[in-house]
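Lecture 7 notes: from sequence to structure.
We start with the chain below.
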Amino acid sequence: MKYGVKKEGLLLIAGIVWLTAGVNILRIGILTWISSAQYPLFKLCEATLVFLFFFIFIFKRLYDKHTKRIDEKEEGNHCPFAFFDLKSWLVMGFMISLGISVRTFHLLPDTIISFFYTGLSMALMLTGLLFIRYWWLKNKNK
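Predicted C-alpha cells for the same chain:
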C-alpha cells in the first residue's frame, strides 16, 4: 500500500480509537449519572463490576489477539484501519448500533445506562492505554 502506516503505527491508531471511544462513552455515562444520581455508592459498585467483566473477559482478550496479529504482520505499509480484523469491525459496528438504539428508543432507564456506560468506558480507555503503552515500549527500544 502506497499510503499506509507501519505495523507499529497500527498499535498507536488502535490505542487512540479505543481511548476516544471510551471517552465518548464516559461522557454519556456521566451525563446520565448526573441526571439520575440516586445511590451513588451502589452505582459505583455496579460500574466497577461492569468494568471488571468487560476488561477481563472481553477487552483484554481482544487486546492480546490484536497485538499478536499486528506483531505478526509483515514489515511495510498497511491500511490504517488494519488494527482490527473484519470480524472485530463487524462486532464494533453492532455494538455502536445497539448503543445508539438503546438510547434513542429509551430501551433502558438512565439509571442502568449511567453505571453500565461508566464501567464500559473505563474498560475501553484502559484497553486503549494498553495499546498506546505497547506502541511506546516497542518504539522506545528502537
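Points to note: The CA atoms of residues 48 and 130 lie 19 Å apart. The two ends are 24 Å apart (CA to CA).
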